[in-house]
Amino acid sequence: MDIAVAGAGYVGLVTAACLAEKGHKVACVDVDAGKVALLQSGKSPIYEPGLEELLKKNRERLLFTTDGAAAYRWADVIIIAVGTPEEPDGSVNLRYVREAAKQIAEAAEKDCVVAVKSTVPVGTGDQVERWIEENRKNPVHIEVVANPEFLSQGTAVKDMLYASRIVLGVESPQAEKVMKEVYDPFALPYVVTDRKSAEMVKYAANVFLALKISYINEIANVCEMVGANIEDVTAGMGMDPRIGSQFLRAGIGYGGSCFPKDTKALHWLAAGCDYELKTVQAAMEVNEKQKVKLIEKARTYVNHFCGLEVAVLGLTFKPGTDDIREAPSLANIAVLLEEGANVRVWDPAGMENAKRVFQKEVVYCSTIAEAITNADICFIFTEWQEIRQFDIRQYAALMKTPLVLDGRNCYSLDSAREAGIIYESVGRERVCPAEVRRRLLENVDVRNG
Ligand code: UDX
Predict the structure, then answer these.
(1) pLDDT per residue as tens digits for the range 89-140
(2) How far is the CA of 91 from the centre of ligand 1 (A)?
(3) What ipTM, to 2 d.p.?
(4) pLDDT number for residue 447
(5) CATH hierarchy code of domain 202-291
(6) Backbone angles phi, psi at 88, to 5 degrees
(7) How many CA atoms lie within 13 A of 303 on its CB side?
(8) What is the band of 441 on the pLDDT scale with cuts at 50, 70, 90?
(9) Could you tell me which of 419, 417, 343, 430 has the C-alpha nearest to residue 379?
């Protein structure tokens, strides 16, 4: 089939590459001429495992262009995958979706299907249909379909090629038939429903995962108080197929471009119907508190952070990405800087993005060892392999006082005990050798003046 993809962002690019891989001819449209030029030269503007290989392999079936009108005129199916940024009140800004719809309507010279893949509030499909009708130039029939995606950063190509399901929200059998021509080569199960239900699937699924994380984080907090171990608890829970073991990792909360935005958007959507989504509200509140939980724990050892040397390991919202949007590290570093700590950070991928948020206020280190050398406290915010594999005894050897606060449970409690460090993690017993604690208090007293 001839398919146009509006938006060469993260979702659009992965979608275009995977559709080409399955034999379709794809024209990927973006307004950013620099990005299009980069893609034309065979390079990917984002890092996503397997993406560049797919782009290269399917070069002949893939075209990148800024000429939306030409692409939309040519295509049988147009997939809208433009950004839907969040407004300060939690609502979704549909400006780019509207622009794409208008351009499609003006360009179309034959019947076609428009599939909305961007995450959009329920009812947006109807709105897109109206925008198209208002701007349509030719007597053609343009069907609007909802087709949400479930891509995770770092595994997006795999998530699309081997998705658990293809969700299609269609309003006619004809649109269903066309969309199945697009996706049949993937040989995946379909969920076919009406447009609004399909739009709802995306929010309901993502927000459910966010709820699951906030729930397990609260259970972890209680585990700490009653002396239980969250890892054993989740192992016991996760084997129940009704619960499942995924998204049960306790930590310092979720970040990224989706969960924080989608929870707010769903809450906002329900509020618009005079309905308060209390579970979602609670999940958001729990997440905000959880993000700075380690700071509170650190305060049980130090009165304030002023003048302390603080190492921060991990900046991104999860491993395998350079994305720091809504990452728990940001809220924590902000508190540390505000209180006058000297912050030294290390991250294998997120430092360039972090430099746009914290310019000269923090020191960027090229190794873990460099970041922790002579530090009074070390925080771990992302579970990078490099951190998990870092010899835990090095904290005792290199830090001034080895107080390690680990928000992602990177080390076993036994290894922490053997290493002779103070080790605070999430949902597990604290490891606190009396001698190290005494040394820490003396040192901090001196430094805090
Ligand atoms: C998510 C959804 O998984 C995906 O389906 C959707 O399309 C976009 O949003 P992504 O934001 O890339 O994907 O990351 P994900 O792997 O889901 O992690 C989100 C956040 O939750 C991260 O900050 C991660 O650290 C946290 N998380 C995840 C936990 O704290 N515990 C877990 O068990 C799982």
Answers:
(1) 888 899 999 999 999 999 999 999 999 999 999 999 999 999 999 999 999 9
(2) 21
(3) 0.97
(4) 67
(5) 1.10.1040.10
(6) -55, -30
(7) 10
(8) confident
(9) 343
DSSP one-letter string for 271-312: HHTT---HHHHHHHHHHHHHHTHHHHHHHTT-S--TT-EEEE
Pair type for strands 377-380 and 362-364: unpaired
CA of 57 to the centre of ligand 1 (A): 29
Dist CA 373 CA 365 (whole Å):
11
Distance of CA 22 from the midpoint of ligand 1 (Å): 27
Letter for the amino acid at 227?
A: G
Nearest CA to ligand 1 atom 7: 150
Q: Decide whether any atom of ligand 1 lies within 6 Å of the 259 Cβ.
A: yes
**Ranges for all domains in the chain classified under CATH 3.40.50.720:** 2-193, 293-448
Distances (CA, A) of 403 to 293, 303, 365, 423: 15, 14, 19, 6
CATH superfamily assigned to domain 2-193: NAD(P)-binding Rossmann-like Domain (3.40.50.720)
Q: Atom 17, ligand 1: which residue's CA is nearest?
A: 152
* Residue 227: Cβ within 10 Å count: 8
Ligand 1 atom with minimal separation from the 154 CA: 12
CA–CA dist 344, 399 (Å, integer):
12
Percent share of the chain, pLDDT over 70: 99
Pick 293-448's CATH classification: 3.40.50.720, 3.40.50.10740, 3.40.109.10, 3.40.50.150: 3.40.50.720
Q: How far apart are CA 209 and CA 132, in angstroms?
A: 34
The preferred substitution site among 117, 254, 315, 384 for testing ligand 1, maximizing ligand atoms within 8 Å of CB, is: 254
The Å distance, Cα 112 to ligand 1 centre, comes to 34
Q: What is the pLDDT of residues 364-385, one digit of tens each?
A: 999 999 999 999 999 999 999 9
Q: How many residues does the chain have?
A: 449
Say which of 28, 223, 258, 378 is annotated catalytic: 258
First-to-last C-alpha distance (Å) of the chain:
71
- What is the identity of the amino acid at 127? Q
Tell me the pTM: 0.94
Which residue owns the Cα nearest ligand 1 atom 32? 247
Which residue minimizes the CA distance to atom 9 of ligand 1? 258
Please indicate whether residue 258 is annotated as part of the active site: yes
- For the Cβ of 314 lying below 6 angstroms from any atom of ligand 1, the answer is no
